[in-house]
Write a structure and sequence with these properties.
heterodimer; A: mainly beta; Neuraminidase; 2 domains; six-stranded mixed beta sheet; 3 helices; 33 strands; globular; B: alpha+beta; 60s Ribosomal Protein L30, Chain: A; four-stranded mixed beta sheet
Chain lengths: ~425, ~180
């Protein structure tokens, strides 16, 4: 494990790009009642020895994690074809499989390149749906596997797969009351291949992606004051972009990439501002003596959602960036916060505590047209919901047995998977945009 | 955990010293009234009364100093759930902090506001700032200057106690005065 440290800044903040020892491992905690049966035949290796990553296992894991599929165990397969000419649909119909994925990996000894050929079939219609050859370097085997998962998912569901996406999250490793290591890490959506992007002994918060996936914004207390930074992922190069008195927090890029919404309390109490990233010019969006925070953008980059406790308890509001009176969106909850729309712009994902008495914070979806609320989670300290770019799943942070962990839930609440970490608390997941 | 029980201990000492002061001054009053009531007029009796008065004032000054020292040693203030106003029972101690800043204009303090982990992180950042501000404003009412005070909120990011119990939460909803 080679540690490439790009920057060693003052005050103990280390910006690095290293593979973290603590990898997240997925655990499926709840699936659908009638998942689609799919047979993913172990890919054969041509020339040379298998190199660790098994494509078929990664694809099976991908498809099962989102809950809509159930992969057949290879032990129950009647044959193991690796190309179309060896496929007998009868073998798969007997096993009640709807879909079949086969393939082979070609790797010349000594070469850094691999070729992966795969074919995907509809068993009922006895039809090949897609066949492709993907070429990449040996360390891109996981990327190739995720790409195959994307194709399979889109063929079956009609929706774009999000298996090649990544997540940012904050980890906190408590050493002693005087020493905690805070890190911003980046990993594949399934928690694999995590890298530490920032490390500090002072708190780090609110990691956010730029829409092109190349930069992150976050909050660091490294100067003993909360300040916002932007960092280039590939180079580790970074710059501090705010230094206002009071809270500087909650940076969120506009979907068009031109602006950064943020919270500043320089004028007495936390309010939402928008910074033009070209001119650094600030526009104030809210002006209220109570707390306004947790901005998030609508898909058209023209409005911002925020949390405000102007009526006493936190509720979610929406305001156009051209100004105007904020519209209140939530009413029937004691505590509704951290609102963000699904890609449809109608369903509002949020953190919800129904009544003062129930004392439980859940992830819920509120449809602003039908006014219907669906509560998706049953743990009690749920927060920081982040939506996959295809709108299929929501990742959030919760606490189980005293530890901070990341969970994901499908937007209908039927499927759940968990990414436990092997050390420390993890929280504040941020799901990347589509990266390719 | 050790530091927390220490802080509770300090608070107890302070409460006791305030009670001690009350006890002291009331016994002083009795000493004052006794010579007046007997009114013997003898010089040595007057000298004795002066001595007693001086002793009483010295005791009072000493008690006052002890109380101020204890108050200034109390640097962590706790808050009720979802409340940003400090506890009424902390008013006297905070007033002493404020007056101390007023008479030591070179002194700077930092108020660090914290929340417990329930609710969202960014909202808790706002809550921690509001708590620090409520104490800042009271210090200013008692003569401190705004330029002597820096406030910062850590939200729920730096808990004093780990765990999901009400006891831990209570220790985490706090403002710390850092000198």
């Amino acid at each position: 494990m080679i540690k490439k440290i790009f920057h060693m800044l003052l005050l103990g903040v280390v910006v690095s790009q290293s593979v973290a020892a603590a990898e997240l491992n997925i655990e499926i905690t709840q699936g659908v009642d009638n998942p689609i049966p799919i047979a993913v035949v172990p890919f054969t290796w041509q020339g040379g020895i298998a190199l660790g990553e098994e494509i078929d296992r990664i694809v099976s894991a991908d498809l099962q994690q989102v809950g809509e599929f159930r992969a057949l165990s290879p032990a129950n397969m009647l044959s193991m074809p690796d190309e179309a000419s060896e496929v007998y649909f009868r073998d798969w119909r007997i096993l009640a499989q709807d879909y079949l994925l086969i393939g082979k990996v070609n790797h010349s000894p000594g070469s850094q390149l691999v070729q992966v050929q795969y074919e995907f079939f509809d068993v009922t219609r006895e039809q090949k749906l897609v066949g492709e050859m993907l070429t990449g370097s040996i360390d891109q085997l996981r990327d190739i596997a995720h790409e195959i998962s994307n194709v399979v998912y889109e063929q079956v569901t009609g929706n774009r797969g999000a298996f090649s996406t990544e997540i940012l999250y904050v980890s906190a490793q408590f050493i002693s009351p005087e020493l905690t290591y805070y890190r911003i890490e980046k990993a594949d959506y399934d928690g694999h291949r995590s890298q530490v992007l920032v490390e500090s002994q002072e708190p780090l918060m609110s990691p956010a992606w730029s829409p092109d996936g190349r930069q992150i914004a976050y909050l660091s207390f490294e100067t003993n004051l909360p300040r916002i930074y932007i960092q280039e992922i590939a180079t580790g190069e970074r710059r501090q972009i705010t230094d206002f008195p009071g809270i500087n927090s909650s940076p969120v890029w506009s979907p068009d990439g031109t602006k950064l919404a943020m919270v500043l309390s320089k004028d007495g109490s936390p309010d939402v501002y928008v910074m033009d990233l070209m001119t650094s010019q600030l526009t104030r969006l809210t002006d209220h003596p109570r707390a306004e925070t947790e901005p998030s953008w609508t898909a058209d980059s023209r409005s911002v959602l925020f949390t405000s406790d102007r009526t006493g308890q936190p509720q979610i509001y929406q305001v156009p960036i051209t100004g105007g009176f904020p519209e209140r969106l939530t009413f029937d909850c004691f505590y509704c916060a951290k609102g963000r729309f699904l890609p449809d712009g109608k369903n509002l994902v949020h953190v919800r505590r129904d009544t003062r008495e129930d004392n439980s914070y859940s992830i819920a979806i509120f449809n602003i047209d039908t006014q219907r609320v669906i509560t998706l989670t049953d743990t009690s300290l749920d927060e920081s919901p982040s939506v996959a770019p295809n709108g299929s799943m929501i990742m959030f942070a919760t606490t189980v047995n005293g530890r901070g962990i990341l969970d994901a839930v499908s937007i209908d609440g039927r499927v759940k998977f968990r990414l436990p970490s092997s050390q420390g608390d993890v929280r504040e997941p941020s799901w990347s945009p589509f990266l390719n | 955990m050790g530091t927390h029980s220490m802080k509770f201990f300090k608070t107890t000492i302070l409460a006791m010293s305030i009670m001690g002061l009350v006890a002291c001054s009331s016994s002083g009053d009795e000493e004052m009234t006794t010579p007046t009531a007997t009114n013997t007029g003898a010089a040595d009796t007057a000298a004795a009364a002066r001595a007693a008065e001086e002793a009483r004032l010295a005791r009072e000054r000493e008690a006052q100093a002890r109380m101020e020292a204890a108050a200034l040693a109390t640097t962590v203030f706790y808050f009720d759930f979802d409340v940003s106003e400090f506890l009424a029972s902390d008013r006297d101690v905070l007033a002493i902090h404020g007056r101390n800043l007023a008479s030591n204009s070179g002194t700077r303090v930092r108020l660090e506001g914290h929340a417990d982990e329930r609710g969202t992180r960014e909202y808790n950042l706002a809550l921690g700032e509001r708590r620090a501000n409520s104490i800042r404003d009271y210090l200013v009412v008692n003569g401190a200057s705004l330029s002597q005070i820096q406030t910062v909120s850590y939200g729920e990011e730096r808990p004093a106690a780990q765990g999901q119990t009400e006891a831990s939460y209570r220790q985490n909803r706090r403002v710390e005065i850092i000198r």
